Amino acid sequence: MIFTEISHTRTADEVIHQIEELVLQGVLKPGDRIPGERALSKSLNVSRPVLRDALQKLEARGLLLTRQGEGSVVADVVGTVFQDPIVDLIRKHPKATADYVEFRRQIEGITAEMAAIRATDADRELLTRLINTMAETHELQDFSAEAEVDTEFHQAIGECAHNIVLLHMLRSCYRLLEQGVFINRSRLYSHNGSRNALLAQHKAIYASIMARDPQAARKAAEAHMDFVAEAAREVETIGEREAVSRLRLEQHSTQNKVERAAKAAKAK
To answer: Which pLDDT tens digit goes with each residue over 227-238?
Structure first.
């Protein structure tokens, strides 16, 4: 259990503080279910009325919400970097993607460096599980699953850095990535040679963190983002070429239909 017994003042405020800390530290994530009253009151060693009061206050503040049949779950408290109007503008202007990757290069380097210094044994075990899962999805050639583990791996590195502000900033940044605002990750993974290169880069970041080598971790993370930037440009260029090619093919087909119709009319 991630919840610990409250041994002194068993008040709603103490319960609230413990749940707040778990959310703030990234232990409890959006959508995670809070145990039922009976189990949680026993774990915390508080009365059910005290627990109920705490959960109600957290729900009133928007930190928890109640779902039918599920009880209390952590609300989607991950903020968004940009509001919808600016996101729509970003989608229309390619320079924003380059700026996003440039920003990610710097922040990912810092994060990996900090993770190499601060990662605990539990952090390192989680990273090991994720890199193994990434290798398994790679073998299955499931682009979508591989992209999901990719994001989870980077989020875990953010957790290993043990900086709360950095953690939540990264999560909100990855939210845009998951929504495909900047880069179509499935297309990136299906791009020629990208999958093998990305796996090798993730393994290099992992190895540096496990070796507790901050400079190597930073360089590996920056090299990874350099590759992503170049691959994203190639994917975008290929996409533009394919779009033009489809238009040409469609125009050719239409023109042929017109010419055949004209010949048929003359023949009559």
So the answer is: 988 887 776 665
Cα–Cα distance measured from residue 113 to residue 209, given in angstroms and rounded to the nearest whole number: 8
- Rama region for 85: left / alpha / beta (φ>0; ψ in -120 to 50; rest): alpha
Range from 27-31, 37-41, 159-163 carrying the lowest mean pLDDT: 27-31
Tell which residue, 119, 114, 127, 116, has the closest CA to residue 212: 116
Q: Within 10 A of 96 (CB to CB), how many other CB atoms are there?
A: 17
The type of residue at 109 is: G
Tell me how far apart the alpha carbons of residues 130 and 150 are, in angstroms, rounded to a whole number.
9
Tokens of 201: 């880069």
Contact 55, 35 (CB under 8 A): no
Contact 166, 123 (CB under 8 A): no
- In 3D space, the residue among 201, 205, 226, 202 whose CA is nearest the CA of residue 214 turns out to be 205
User: φ and ψ at 264, to 5 degrees?
Assistant: -65, -35
Give the integer Cα–Cα distance in Å for 7 and 238: 62
The Cα–Cα gap between 84 and 61 comes to 24
What is the biggest distance separating any 2 CA atoms in the chain, rounded to whole angstroms?
99
d(CA 218, CA 68) in angstroms, rounded, equals: 45
Asked if residue 239 has pLDDT above 70, the reply is no
At a CB cut-off of 8 Å and minimum separation 6, what does 142 contact?
none
User: What pTM, to 2 d.p., does this model score?
Assistant: 0.73
Instruction: Map residue 67 onto helix, strand or coil.
Output: strand
When the pLDDT of each residue in the chain is averaged and rounded to a whole number, the result is: 85
